[in-house]
Every structure is written in C-alpha cells, then in structure tokens.
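Entry type: protein chain
Record version: 2
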Amino acid sequence: MILDEFVQHIGSKLGEDIVLGKDEQSSPAAIICAPSNLKKLMRFLYEDERCFFDMLSCITAIDNGPEAATFELIYNLYSIPFDHQLMVKIAIDRPASGEELASADTLSDIWQAADWHEREAYDLMGIRFNGHPDMRRILLPADWKGHPLRKDYQDLETYRGIKVKY
C-alpha cells in the first residue's frame, strides 16, 4: 500500500479525523496524528489484516526547543509479511522547565520493542510514557539530573565529585 491508500483505509475504519495530515517528504512517508489518537491508530495498524505492522523499528524524539514548546515523537513501523513501511508522527507539549516531563501514551503493550525505545526517550529527553511498565533511566545513572538531549539542558559541572566537563 502507498501512503494515500493507508490514509483512506484508516479513515474508512477509524474515521476521517484520525489522520491530521501527511508528510510525503519523510522517508518512509508519514502520517501525522493527534497524541490522543496515537494508541487507537497504532493498535489498528498492528492488528488490521491489510496493514499488519508487526515491527516497531524505532522511536525518535525531537526537541523543537523552548520557543516552539513541542517535542515530536516519530514511530517507524514495518510489516514483515507485506514488506511495507510507514512513519507515524505526533507533536506533544514541551514543558517550560527542564525539571517537568512531557508525556505520551506507551506502546509497549502493542510492541515489546517500545519498552527500551520509550525508556531512552525518557532518559535523554524527559518524555514520560503513560502506562509504561518500567519507566526508569536506561542509559544514565538513576540519580542523574536532567535530560541531556533537551535543547535547554545545562551540563553538570560534576557528578559524584567527578568533573564532568572536559
């Protein structure tokens, strides 16, 4: 299926308002949806016999900065039996403070691979995934302060008495 066929199929099954837009410049082509519809859309893409996206390849988090006040979450899906790819994008609110966390729904109950991808986005960007079974840091120590891939992150001078900057 090509992007327009996916959009039409989704619209016929879930309603025309589930897809907010398309990004045909992305590779693979992308569907844009509201965060409130993400779980519904993704479960459909996984379970529907015409789509059957049985593989979540990657979740990418992008910080658009304090001025834009949004994060983007980009999900790369692949269907092994049908050999088709699709990207799904959402934009979520970015809290003004680096101490506050953004949030989105977990997809770890649909694809187990989402578990580590979501933990990475939590650890490095400060995005909490609602309903995630083990939302804790995966790359940095549990007592690390902040989320280093945020555009407004301030590097630590020291960590446990060790100079961090070089």
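Comment: The helical segments are 3-14, 38-47, 65-68, 114-125.
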